[in-house]
Design goal:
The complex is a heteropentamer, with 2 copies of chain A, 2 copies of chain B and 1 copy of chain C. Chain A is α+β, with helices and mostly antiparallel strands. Chain A contains 10 helices and 20 strands. In chain A, the strands form 4 sheets. A 6-stranded mixed β-sheet of chain A has the order 7-8-9-3-10-11, sandwiched between helices. The mean pLDDT of chain B is 87. Classes of the chains: A alpha+beta, B mainly alpha, C alpha/beta. The complex binds adenosine-5'-triphosphate (2 copies), molybdate ion (MOO) and magnesium ion (MG) (2 copies). One adenosine-5'-triphosphate (ATP) sits at the interface of chains A and E. Chains A, E: Pfam families: ABC_tran (PF00005), TOBE (PF03459).
Chain lengths: 360, 232, 229, 232, 360
């Protein structure tokens, strides 16, 4: 199922004009505060009626301004995690969680409530009212409520912003599983580049109500020209490989087009596909093969593209095997090392610098 | 006790309770519906409906009673229709007293409930819709529980008003002991007779006590509900 | 079913007493419903379950007759009454006579009367004052109430020093004093007409007869009413 | 126009407007205060105050009028005090009619405002306090503007009730043409006379028109305020 | 001015029992969702009345359960950025911003409204109502409102969670300036370790309503034993130095006890004190001096402490000059290199791996 959005809407002082397709998997809506992310999500949910355009999921037309079609929200079969929780104050946490299940009857069965309660760590809260929850607890309940309604389209507006990193690390794999095991399109709003890079299949970057760039995550993230839009300091590319071995000393070996990448221990079984985000700032360049270094991952590479911004850094696109990786070095280093397109060199990548949250 | 008040007065108390109770209970669903429509829907004639609902508040009660008599009396268009079709008579029956009380109390009930509905955050109703709940279900499970304190207030206002309603009732269904003589009519009758003020006073005390008890109860219940909503 | 009597509110005590006597005598009971004459008339017009009506106003009885709601020939002028000037304290008597110094007595204060254009006792009172040539001098100082009882209460509580009510009302209120009686010729004859409705059951006629009996007459008299002969 | 209605009836309309306007305006501050106290403070006697406020709703209007007479009449304890101290007379004056209307309308006003106050999120008031605003200031700048629609509703209910109030008014201040003869008293008087229904009807139409206009205005204003609060 | 908090409070199912001192500067309240952070802040603000304990700022007693002292909120002279905004819906953005200024009259003058409006990028929103703002815009206004009330005590509950990293990077320095130029104690709740590390003077780690550890940020963050509490993957120590030079090619040189550290260009004037957070995962270890490496920062170091957790990594505390730095290496590397306490080695630190947001 693909979600396809083409809409125009005018607020006083702000115009929304976006068109993008969200294929199965997670489509990350990315953009600065006030760029129109929530407005897009609201339009998809039927809470905002755009001035013009169409919205469809697979062959279901949800909205068509010209033909005056506007499927009411409750028949759009979606789950929405709002930016501000919106729990029902008069119901207990348990009742909030179960609210959508009633209408989901008959749709493809999803996870039992217990599993999601455990995942979100809200077991002890089940009999409380939302008024007696902390900010993060509220948000976790809101996530659970949306997931339990067994949606055919999931909208998540900064669902993890209020959560600590440990909790985030627990919830993200679940969302990834949702992405991989169902063909539910997920529209995911986030400010966090690592989060987006980790889970997004597709990235839609918004700026002032318009689509700046959109496309498959791997392609968009490995392009040094896109990096500034995402925040240059968070640039990084994605490598895919196959899990080869889990060593006893806590290192996982991943086979990819350029050789073997050593990572901190992963849970995925041997043979599984794995996607790893390599942050540009974690990739060092060496002109000669380094020795006696704590880094396990040293690969011969070729410089494909150099991008010099206004800042002190240079963004280097490297080809390792058939994969693309970004490296960010200072201008001084680049000059001293005489980096140029086509040149061969070594890419040094510390194992531990592949952060847990960047693997998925 | 019977001695203290006299059988006629007791009958009036019993009748007033019956009249007020049914007037409140039966007009409540309509009151909620009208309040919801006025608060949430935009339809032609909204302002007209709004005005109509408030009419009994604006008109002197005698006029309302007179209009009720003209419409629902046995010779009136609605009254004769009801009698012929369903054999249901309002005029000069306690049912008519209940109708008069309900009509007089209706604006108070609707306004209270409407204020409560206005205060419900539509975002919560939207959230329920995203979870797949159809409108009626959203109303029943989200809006209704949230406005419960308002409904209670509306009901108790209506009940209190019904206990005190005089002008419209006596004009519409008269003051027939045991049938349409409510507490206010009885008080009126006693006040017409010099020397009966003390009986009138006792009746006043009884009806005040009843209404205060109802008021207190509604207060307690609506606070409890509000506390529950706030998360204890 | 009992005989249903719709009667003007001011007859309450007297009628209740007579109805009790009637029941003791005949075993028949009467349900007494009291309201303003105008209300009763309109309700009878709308099918009120009344066998016998007893009003304080001939006009409203005429109104009912014009609508063919009364049994032909059953109407009687049952009672009469007299108008009195009352005062709140044991003030010196003030006999209503042509040009009597009512305005001087009132000063800045008010004269309590029932509505002078609507309620019978008020209408009679205004007619009397006009006849005696003092209405214009006091017109601005008349506090009109919706019924005679309230006027009485105003005087009784001292809010108004003077008032005009029926003798029957004044008699029942110990806190007021009759300062003078209006001459019968100063106003139209005060009558309380009674009549059977077209739907009246036989016992109603019996009760109407009983109301005209000497026994009933003495009760009425004891409450200050006048019996026309 | 004057012909159509007659000068006496016009005087009644003018007086009713005056009475209802002042009754509403002057009772508003007290109404807001009492509503706030009932909603937010816990003090001994809260329930008593609550009951007292509702009394005029429960009692037959005549009784309320009679009680007003006993208290505020020239011989009454409060009335004589006011007259001796301030030379301020209520009995038989239009001011008394305004008092009666205000008292009768007070429960409606308070309940409406109270419902609005109950709906204000205390978290906003807390936020104002963290910014250094003392309680009174918080009330004036946060609570008050947020309950404005509720105040409007309360005021319009009170105004409408005042326009229709009859029983308590005539009992307390009688019916002195040009001074205390309000529209309902005039209507009542016309209804007592056979054949005068049409004059009564005209007066009814005028007072309905006035009240409806006020209602519509309040509706428009309160919607505008609500929309403003919701951020257009 | 020091804020001193010792309080006990029981919610049904949750007990709060904390005691800590917050000296001038920023005290970060750190802990998982539901650990009691907001409750502590509410108690300081006077919005929660604890069952027992005392709260004082310098010599002002704000709360004393035993002596039944409880200064009302509006006299505590504080600014509070709530976790959920709490803008006044009926006032415009401008009126919201100015709300607290009225009561601040007479207190030490602070920044003019224009400056803060510009800093927060809310100029175009001034005449809107909060209902027409996006989530991040609301939060920015809430921050401005608290700052403009010229508080003597500033409470910030996850103020930046809803903001994108570019906006965060703009606002953080302002909060740091506030920290440095006034002696206003700032209580700062955050889930983000880099954020906390960057700006906190003092760190208070909460767990389930109790204080797990508290103390000066530099000491707490350089202790490998504390790292797990903060989330081991986010471990990192702080280096302080003096700005020596801004080179033309965009590199700033910082003099510290161990030599010269090269950083991406900083704005701070030459001679200024600067604090830099060095993430443990960005520090490589070498047994012999590396050559031909793109990294500019290579320092001789001594291993002071080794900490092996349950995971695949080892946390190494290094002394460079008199400063302490953390490095995280895999167990495999540690074994291969034969790392031991007391051993000498080289610490390699990429210039660009000092993320902009970690400098302050
Ligand atoms: N009124 C209340 N009644 C009962 N429990 C409450 C109440 N308020 C808070 N709690 C509980 O107290 C604990 C601490 O809440 P608090 O809001 O302080 O957490 P927090 O650290 O701010 O969390 P978060 O990061 O999710 O905002 C939570 O478990 C919460 O459920
Ligand atoms: N009802 C409205 N009226 C006017 N402007 C609005 C309205 N709702 C949103 N806007 C404006 O539209 C723009 C986009 O808002 P939106 O909520 O979609 O942003 P966002 O990308 O979700 O931002 P954030 O990350 O801060 O939540 C903002 O500038 C906002 O001020
Ligand atoms: O308006 Mo009345 O005077 O309550 O019946
Ligand atoms: Mg948003
Ligand atoms: Mg919190």
């Amino acid at each position: 199922m693909t979600l396809s959005v083409r809409i125009n809407h005018g607020f006083p002082g702000f115009a929304l004009d976006v068109a993008f397709d969200a294929p199965p998997g997670i489509t990350a809506l990315f953009g600065k505060s006030g760029s129109g992310k929530t407005s897009v999500v609201n339009a998809v949910a039927g809470l905002l009626r755009p001035d013009a355009g169409t919205i469809r999921v697979a062959d279901r037309l949800l909205f068509d301004a010209e033909r005056r079609i506007c499927v009411p929200t409750h028949r759009r079969r979606l789950g929405y995690v709002f930016q501000e929780g919106r729990l029902f104050p008069h119901l207990t946490v348990r009742q909030n969680l179960c609210y959508g299940r009633w209408f989901a009857k008959g749709r493809a069965g999803s996870d039992p409530i217990d599993r999601i309660v455990e995942l979100l760590g809200i077991g002890p809260l089940l009999d409380r009212q939302p008024g007696a929850l902390s900010g993060g607890e509220k948000q976790r309940v809101a996530i659970g409520r949306a997931l339990l309604s067994e949606p055919e389209l999931l909208l998540m507006d900064e669902p993890l912003a209020a959560l600590d990193s440990a909790r985030k690390a627990e919830i993200l794999p679940y969302i990834q599983r949702l992405r991989d095991e169902t063909d539910t399109p997920i529209l995911y709003v986030s400010h966090s580049v690592p989060e987006v890079a980790r889970i997004a299949t597709t990235v839609v970057a918004l700026e002032a109500g318009r689509v700046l760039r959109s496309g498959p995550a791997q392609a968009v993230l490995a392009d040094p020209d896109v990096a500034p839009a995402l925040g240059i300091r968070e640039a990084g590319a994605l490598l895919s490989g196959i899990v080869r071995e889990h060593a006893e000393d806590g290192v996982t070996a991943l086979a990819f087009s350029g050789g073997t990448l050593y990572l901190p221990l992963q849970r995925d079984p041997v043979g599984a596909d794995l996607r790893v985000r390599i942050e540009a700032k974690d990739v060092l360049l060496a002109t000669e093969a380094p020795t006696g270094l704590s880094a396990l991952n040293i690969f011969p590479a070729r410089i494909e593209k150099l991008r010099q911004g206004d800042g002190p850094g240079v963004l280097v696109q490297l080809r390792i095997g058939t994969d693309l990786v970004l490296s960010r070095v200072t201008r001084r280093s680049a000059n001293r090392m005489g980096l140029a397109v086509g040149q061969s060199c070594y890419a040094v990548l510390k194992t531990v610098s592949v952060a847990k949250q960047d693997i998925g | 006790m019977t001695d203290w008040l006299g059988p006629e007065a007791w009958a009036a108390v019993a009748l007033s309770l019956q009249v007020s109770f049914w007037a409140t209970l039966l007009s409540l669903p309509l009151g909620i519906f009208v309040a919801y429509a006025l608060s949430r829907w935009n339809f032609p004639g909204r302002q007209l409906l709004n005005g109509l609902v408030h009419l009994p508040l604006i008109l002197p009660p005698v006029v309302t009673g007179y209009l009720l008599l003209l419409a629902f009396g046995r010779r009136g268009p609605v009254g004769s229709f009801l009698e012929e079709t369903f054999g249901f008579v309002l005029a000069f029956r306690w049912t008519g007293a209940a109708l008069a009380a309900a009509v007089m109390a209706f604006p108070l009930m609707v306004r209270a409930i409407r204020l409560a509905i206005d205060a419900v955050d539509p975002k919560l109703e939207q959230a329920a819709a995203t979870l797949g709940a159809p409108r009626a279900w959203v109303f029943a499970t989200i809006t209704l529980p949230l406005i419960l304190p308002g409904i209670l207030v509306g009901a108790i206002l209506a009940f209190a008003k019904a206990m005190g309603e005089f002008g419209a009732t006596i004009t519409f269904v008269s003051n027939i002991p045991g049938q349409t003589q409510t507490v206010p009519s009885a008080i009126y009758a006693f006040l017409q007779v010099p020397g009966e003020e003390s009986t009138a006073l006792r009746l006043v005390l009884v009806s005040v006590a009843i209404a205060m008890a109802a008021l207190l109860l509604s207060e307690v219940v609506s606070r409890a509900v509000a506390r529950r909503i706030a998360g204890q | 079913r009992d005989v249903s009597v719709f009667a003007a509110a001011s007859l309450k005590t007297a009628l209740e007493e007579i109805a009790a006597d009637w029941r003791d005598e005949t075993g028949h009971a009467a349900t007494l419903t009291f309201a303003a004459s105008s209300t009763i008339a309109r309700q009878v017009d709308q099918g009120a379950p009344a066998d016998l009506v007893l009003l304080a106003s001939a006009d409203w009885m005429d109104w009912l007759a014009a609508r063919d709601l009364l049994r032909a020939g059953s109407r009687v002028a049952l009672l009469g009454n007299t108008l009195v000037l009352i005062g709140s304290q044991a003030a010196p008597p003030l006999d209503p006579a042509p040009g009597f110094p009512l305005a001087e007595r009132l000063g800045d204060d008010f004269l309590a009367m029932a509505l002078v254009s609507a309620v019978p006792v008020g209408i009679y009172g205004k007619a009397a004052l006009t006849n005696l040539g003092v209405w214009d001098t006091v017109a601005d100082h008349v506090a009109q109430t919706d019924n005679a009882r309230t006027a009485l209460a105003l005087v009784a509580s001292g809010e108004a020093p003077l008032g005009i009510v029926y003798a029957s009302d004044a008699q029942a209120e110990p806190r007021v004093h009759v300062l003078g009686r209006f001459p019968a010729e100063s106003h139209p004859t005060i009558t309380y007409p009674a009549a059977l409705t077209v739907e009246a059951r036989p016992e109603a006629a019996a009760f109407l007869s009983f109301l005209q009996s000497p026994e009933a007459a003495s009760v009425f008299r004891s409450h200050g009413f006048v019996i026309h002969d």
